[in-house]
Amino acid sequence: MLYRILTILCITLLLATGCKSKKRVAETRKKPRTERVVVERKTTEKITPTLEDTPKTEIIVPKKDASYAEIVSAYIASYSTIAMEEMLQYGIPASITLAQGILESGAGRGELTSKANNHFGIKCHKEWTGDRVYHDDDELQECFRKYKDPKYSFRDHSLFLTQRSRYQDLFKLRKDDYKGWAKGLRKAGYATDPKYPEKLISIIERYDLTKYDNEVLGNKANFLNPDDSKIGTYSVQKGDTLYSIARRFNITVDTLKEYNGLISDTISIGQVLYLHPVKNH
After folding, report:
1. E strand or H helix at 73
2. Which end of the chain is more exposed for a tag (fewer CB within 10 A), N or C?
3. Which residues contact 105 (CB under 8 A, 6 or more apart)?
4. Alpha-carbon dihedral of residues 113, 197, 157, 67, nearest 10 degrees?
């Protein structure tokens, strides 16, 4: 009897020990829980839009037997929006930009424009690192800039005028003074043709290009005699840029910066910007 009891106890102990070992093995096989670390990436908001952000230019091609007036109309339809965008950002009248483009590119039919999207005959210069073509001009086989899209040619035209000191007096003129701009370009040495101003003025008046200036200026702009009793302000919101604000209120970026004493394009959320000149500011 005693022997039987001892046998039962031994079997019970063996079973208990086996269960505990299996449990320990099972526990050791469990994978430890790990935490996922999420790194928050800070993004830098663009202050001004780049041309890479804008869609490819849609060029309206006139029919083969189109008259010159129809060819010019197609040119204006293709590039008027770009000219107005450049006016908003750089302060050059859209009428002047369009008239120069029509005159210098042969309304888009010129050889240099056709093979290089170069509408203003801008040469390579030392700082140019992009594509290039060689074209007879004042000298044989001169180097000219080549663009993948016409919009880059219009941008270089704006930069050409704004970044050279000899054209700075132009930006003291009213934005709707197309005659002053046409004469000022010739005076600053943009063209050697003594009739260059008259040609630009004739194109502007014949094709009513001042309507694009008026559209940008809101047809109510008066930069010489602003109404100081109605000073508008705007509080900067998330996602705003100087460019987007200027476009919304029909003024140029330079003018907006001047009104607010800004020396850079940096603005912050909640910042209050003046939309008109302020006395003693």
Report:
1. helix 68-90
2. N
3. 75, 112, 113, 118, 119, 120
4. -30
Q: Could you identify the residue written with the tokens 């705007």?
A: 234
Q: Residue 112 — left, alpha, or beta (φ > 0 → left; ψ -120 to 50 → alpha)?
A: alpha
Give residue-wise pLDDT tens across range 219-268: 544 433 444 444 578 888 888 888 888 888 878 888 888 888 888 888 88
Query: With respect to CATH, is domain 228-274 assigned 3.10.350.10?
Result: yes
DSSP 193-204: -TTHHHHHHHHH
In CATH, 60-122+148-217 is 1.10.530.10: yes
Per-domain residue ranges of the chain:
60-122+148-217, 228-274
Cα–Cα dist 94/181, whole Å: 11
State the Cα–Cα distance between residues 242 and 264, nearest whole angstrom: 10
**What digits encode the pLDDT tens for the residues 93-141?**
999 999 999 999 999 999 999 999 999 999 998 888 899 999 887 788 8
CA distances, 281 to each of 6, 67, 222, 234, 262 (Å)? 105, 53, 19, 16, 12
